Amino acid sequence: MRLLVDAGNTRVKWRLERSGSTVNSGADRLEEIETVPQLAEHGDAVGSIAVSTVISEENRARLVESLSRVTAAPVRFYWAESERSGLRNAYADYCLMGADRWHAMYAAWRMVRNGVAVIDAGSAVTIDYVSSNGTHLGGFILPGLNMMLRSLKSDAARIGFDPGDVRLVAPGTSTGECVNHGLAWLSSAMNDRVADDAKKHALAEVLVTGGDAGRLLDLGLVARHVPDLVLDGVGLIDAEESSA
Ligand SMILES: Nc1ncnc2c1ncn2[C@@H]1O[C@H](COP(=O)(O)OP(=O)(O)O)[C@@H](O)[C@H]1O
Ligand SMILES: CC(C)(COP(=O)(O)O)[C@@H](O)C(=O)NCCC(=O)O
Ligand SMILES: [K+]
């Protein structure tokens, strides 16, 4: 059995696979990984672990420690690359790109084999554009929903509000509505910008992944929802590297 892991800044997404089929999957906080029953149950059967991560080195060591309590299987980390199967990274210093972006982009490229926009709506929101010939045209990094809510709460003395429905875009008539609707309005503007850019760069498809993907779709994003694009990408690369 193979364990795929996407350790982001909020949650660790994982998937257990046997002969390419999913046996189990989940999304848990880093501190919880070593006690996830479904992982413990299959620990002995896991033969290898492939990880994509953007967490700090300190937390990466914690992750390795937690995984070692679940299984004795070796852990292999995969990072951003300059090129793979016709997909070419736009970063001059590709090592500085978040591994999750590269792995999501790679899965998208292999899935679409055409111009594609990839939105990963996680702790941060990343948007990357790949042209029809596999050239990464570049991307954007924006604060994610919870990050924006936290900064409004902590950096402005008189913005008091409770989390509300961040799917309504009507002008607000209370602090809470102004904040929640404001962020919905911002997300909806982002959706429109991606659609404009997709047209401008002749991208055939928009793919969206990440914990906040559903909210963007509810706000009208025109995209295909691929729930675990990062896991898909690191899984493909791990298979290629293991058979090389
Ligand atoms: N059960 C959940 N726990 C935490 N965040 C969630 C959950 N469901 C949806 N979200 C949203 O997903 C975002 C985190 O997405 P995720 O893809 O897990 O991020 P990351 O890859 O950065 O860890 C949060 O900012 C939040 O908006
Ligand atoms: C932008 C990110 C924080 C997104 O990670 P996430 O919020 O999904 O956990 C991550 O891809 C990252 O740390 N990137 C490094 C900088 C870069 O990609 O240029
Ligand atoms: K992510």
TrEMBL record:
Cofactor (UniProt): K(+); NH4(+)
UniProt keyword annotation of Transferase present: yes
UniProt catalytic activity: (R)-pantothenate + ATP = (R)-4'-phosphopantothenate + ADP + H(+)
Pathway terms, separated by semicolons: Cofactor biosynthesis; coenzyme A biosynthesis; CoA from (R)-pantothenate: step 1/5
Gene Ontology MF terms: ATP binding; metal ion binding; pantothenate kinase activity
Pfam families (UniProt xref): Pan_kinase
EC category name: transferase
Main location: cytoplasm
Entry function: Catalyzes the phosphorylation of pantothenate (Pan), the first step in CoA biosynthesis.
Name of the protein this chain belongs to: Type III pantothenate kinase
Organism of this sequence: Marinobacter nitratireducens
Gene from which the chain derives: coaX
